[in-house]
Specification:
Layout lengths: L7 E5 L4 H12 L3 E6 L4 H10 L3 E6 L5 H15 L4 E4 L15 H13 L3
Parallel strand pairs: 1-2, 1-4, 2-3
Helix pairs in contact: 1-2
Length: about 120
């Protein structure tokens, strides 16, 4: 039996980088991964997990949008009845330079995703 067999794991920012790698590791350990992201690359991550014999389901969710997050939470509760692991990985980096050089809109988006989105 794998360490995370029969566990439900949510990974935000699961399309690329650390989120993608974490989703793949969690699935390889037996978790059913609920992969969240806004990127079209999310389907590739989920497909790769499923092709490797793991379990993953894609959810297009913008974690800076309270309504989308609530809709996901309601659906996950209805379908899975519980969540065992949450990896709040989603974040944005607009490459705007130093924080004092950020346009207000960029700063607001970063705070909405990186800070409030994981709240």
């Amino acid at each position: 039996m794998k360490r995370l067999e029969n566990k439900i794991a949510v990974v935000t920012g699961a399309s690329t980088g650390i989120g993608r790698g974490s989703a793949m590791v969690l699935a390889s350990e037996g978790a059913h991964v609920l992969a969240l992201d806004i990127s079209d690359e999310l389907d590739n991550t989920v497909q790769e997990i499923n092709d490797a014999g793991g379990q993953a389901t894609a959810y297009k969710v913008d974690i800076s949008d309270d309504q989308q997050v609530q809709q996901f939470a309601d659906e996950a509760k209805e379908k899975y009845s519980r969540i065992d692991v949450i990896f709040n990985n989603a974040g944005v980096d607009n490459g705007a330079g130093r924080i004092h050089e950020y346009p207000v809109e960029v700063f607001d988006k970063i705070m909405a995703v990186d800070m409030r989105g994981t709240f």
